[in-house]
User: Fold this.
Amino acid sequence: MGEYVLRRLYQALWVLIAVTVVTFFISNLLPGDPALSRAGQFATKEQVAKTRKLLGLDQPLHIQYFKYMQRLLSGDLGLSITSRQPVLKELRDFFPATLELTIAAFCFTLSIGVPLGILAGSTKSRWLKSTIITGSLIGVGIPVFWAGLVFQLVFAGRLDLLPLAGRLTLTVPPPPSVTNMYLIDSVLAGQWDTFKDALHHLILPAFTLSLGQIGAMARTTNSAVSSVIHRDYVRTAHAKGLASRKVLWAHVLRNALLPVVTVLGLYVAFMLNGALLIEIIFSWGGLGTYAWIGIFRNDITVIMGVTLTASLTFMFVNLVIDLTYPFLDPRIQYG
Amino acid sequence: MSRQTEAPDSLTIQSLDENAGLWRRFKQSRFAFAVRHNPLSLLGLFILALLIAMVVAPEWFTQHNPTMLNLRTKFISPGADHPFGTDHMGIDIFSRVVYAARTTIWVVCVVLSIATGLGFLVGSTAAYVGGRVDSVLMRLTDVWMAFPSLVLAIALNAALGRGLFQTVIAVGFSWWPSYARLVRAQVLSVKNEEYVLAARALGASHFRIIARHVIRNGFDPIIVNITIDVGFVALATAGLSFLGLGIEPPTPEWGRMVAEGRDYLLDQWWASTFPGLALFMFVVGFNLLGEIVRDWLDPSNVGRR
Assistant:
């Protein structure tokens, strides 16, 4: 067990190094000479050489990489080329919004996808099962950015049930910033109206983001439950007269849901992908919006900041899931 | 005399019989099983047929030019002349949706060629050579998977400059790890089969063994995966062009069209809705086809009802 944790941490360290190597090289792939552009149009050869030395660009690549890592570890992700603000500071404003959105979408996924999958896997009605499985195909195949627009059109435009976009109504001031997740901040400040408004704004984008995962989750859970439900121990449990509900909870789900946990990490990657698109549609000031700004201003430090944050989040979530797995499934031996 | 009358009779009976046999054989074929097993998959076949027609002969579907702008016909709502309406440049949306199928297929083919090519190379090398090479290559694959694909594509676009070519390359390069894993698993599963050992004993080269024996026998799940991925690759590249990375405006492309219609969403709903719907059908269609292919290739389905 302890050895497993160490091995997994060691592996995560390698991923960390690899991720930074990749971002480092991508930043260095940039066409054009940074020293030349920094020194200015009319710089002499000597001035350019001096700037190059000043920026450390005359040193071999591996030394440059170590310098880069040093800066990263001290929290320096560089200055945004366009806004002249430290990227880390801007990320601190944008990232919690994405986190809030993703967590909400995760709640939708778990509370809709898993029950649907259990229902499909355990029902005796073929009709119900195939309806759920076919329906889940809609979730899996729907382009999120398009679904977002259709929902906006229907729920905000035509029915006027939910707000069109944004994180808060314009007239509502954001709660005092602690975590930058409005739901949490408004609760901390005791501003219930703000909380309600923020929740209202969260529903549509979070549901859109969860659509694909709801479908995938329903399918995964269905096949997991179906593979367990005809096992001998389930039949035995029925035969000894246990109530169906008890059999489902204690015997079927306990065993079926383990493989479902392993795919959760993968879903985080899909969600991060989806969030990038959905935030733009719903004017959600998160990582995706920030990336978009970076793309359109050709701001490479911003884009690399987003890339790092997204990949590190993904790595971290997977690490946590892998570390909790042995607690959920004591049978598994890691050697 | 009696023989003369008999002969044609027996012939007809025989040919009838043959037809019945053919029909029965079709009914018992894996293909028929696949369709019966999942009747909805017929929809997948239908979408595929429609798509092929759209790619081969888009002019059968529409007389309108998908790129000629005409500001006098701006934002006409869907009707007889323009089934999907017209967009902000006065172009018939139906014709753009039809012609965009070509773009999508082209993009998907390139992306999947890169992804499967790299995947085969890495996966089969890892499995066939084994040992240290295997663990290094698979670690590399794991790391590559740590990047959310869209983020990686955005980063590569930022580094290599914006454009369709860069987008296609970026998606292709972010897509290979799943194929590397799949190919590796397949190669490992047949590597020690007797016919592979026999081929080796007969002195066949490594390349020949991999190409002729290993890949052929471990190919089915990969084919299924490719079929389903056609839809998902289209989805990913459309997402990127929705962000403005990829196809340049005059060329019709579904993701780009959804983005363009977004500005007029509440008043001219059709501009985004139909291209998105087309993409949606495309993805669902290839998902269903994947299921057909899976049932079809599965040898345990012979003669099942």
Summary: The mean pLDDT of chain A is 81. The radius of gyration of chain A is 25 Å.
